[in-house]
Amino acid sequence: MLHGADGVAKMLAKRVEQFVRDVVAPYEQDPRLGAHGPSEELVAELRAKAKAAGVLTPHILEGGAHLTQRETAAVLKPSGLSPLGPVAVNTMAPDEGNMYLLGKIATAEQKAHFLAPLVAGEVRSAFFMTEPAADGGAGSDPSMMQTVARPDGNHWVIDGRKAFITGAQGAKVGIVMAKSDEGATMFLVDLPDPAIRIVRVLDTIDSSMPGGHSVVAIEGLRVPANQILGAPGEGFKLAQVRLSPARLSHCMRWHGAATRANEIATAYACRRQAFGKPLVDHEGVGFMLAENLIDLQQAELMIDWCADVLDTGALGTAESSMAKVAVSEALMRVADRCVQVMGGTGVSGDTIVEQVFREIRAFRIYDGPTEVHKWSLAKKIKRDWKSAQG
């Protein structure tokens, strides 16, 4: 018998896994899937089925209680068994991270207006922080932010440009980061708004997230003062509240995707005959699958370790950076081996292996590229050494 919150998470994880495997996976060849993600019609259809199955937004319980990070990992990993799984059960980025931030920081009024429809899976959201490199704007270094906000009576007026904004097209809830006199500040906005214009939707290597990734122009956006998230000048602090667990959530979801890719590659290697025996019996292939198991297990251990740190209440910035680097690089190796094991089939669209490879390649950049996280960790090493010297 399962007891307590851990038991709830395990039961939810089993239900999510069954739903993703049995209901969501058959949609992976649906014509409503495009280069910029699934259509709004497909999103609504999948979420209606998730709601009927009792697995919509499974990491947030009735009454608004959020699972611990360790429990969230148990649920989000099986949600990622299909690239469509997080979309269907409402655990995808950026919504999952935005719901977490709003649940921690938003006022009761803000939660009722912005958070409740997100948790219900009725709307999607976007997080407007990254800016175009050509403009010298904020990317991995948010201190370079060029988007500005100035007070105007009981409102704020925001102007700037943003880039790589996931899900902006079709989103109903926005969190906009801008630079005010007090410092970086976050604003909650209703979308669409004529002052927020999608310049173009970028063609990127990944294709799992509804709305794709957009370049956005913000021109004279007026936001009521009561729609500031937190307080003016708290933007960078709040970004860390969101980004540390959000990085880990990416690891959870893509661990599920890599696990499924490995299952497909394993089945292929065990069935496919070459040179008088199954592919798996050739050391070159069998060893790749063995290495996949090792990388998947090590990645899972890293996810659980980082989740435990975050569950202590620590900000976990260094730990989430380590997890992001270790897991994204390990899962990239897994996806690459799966493609290699399957040969021509692995680079075709006949299975999700090719898509998982593309998605995880993008994951190594999104939420901070590997090199930025290593640089941040190196700075911490230096600070810790100096502190130890007195």
TrEMBL record:
User: Which residue numbers delimit the Acyl-CoA dehydrogenase/oxidase N-terminal domain?
Assistant: 10-122
Q: What range(s) does the Acyl-CoA oxidase/dehydrogenase middle domain occupy?
A: 126-202
GO MF, one term, reads: acyl-CoA dehydrogenase activity
- UniProt superkingdom: Bacteria
Q: Which cofactor does it need?
A: FAD
Q: Which terms under GO biological process does the entry name? A: fatty acid beta-oxidation using acyl-CoA dehydrogenase
Q: What InterPro entries does the annotation carry?
A: Acyl-CoA_dehydrogenase, Acyl-CoA_Oxase/DH_mid-dom, Acyl-CoA_Oxase/DH_mid-dom_sf, AcylCo_DH-like_C, AcylCo_DH/oxidase_C, AcylCoA_DH/ox_N, AcylCoA_DH/ox_N_sf, AcylCoA_DH/oxidase_NM_dom_sf
The Acyl-CoA dehydrogenase/oxidase C-terminal domain covers: 233-380
Q: What are the annotated GO cellular component locations?
A: cytoplasm
Record keywords: FAD, Flavoprotein, Oxidoreductase
Its subunit composition reads: Homodimer.
> Per the similarity annotation, which family is this?
Belongs to the acyl-CoA dehydrogenase family.
- The protein depicted here goes by the name Acyl-CoA dehydrogenase family protein
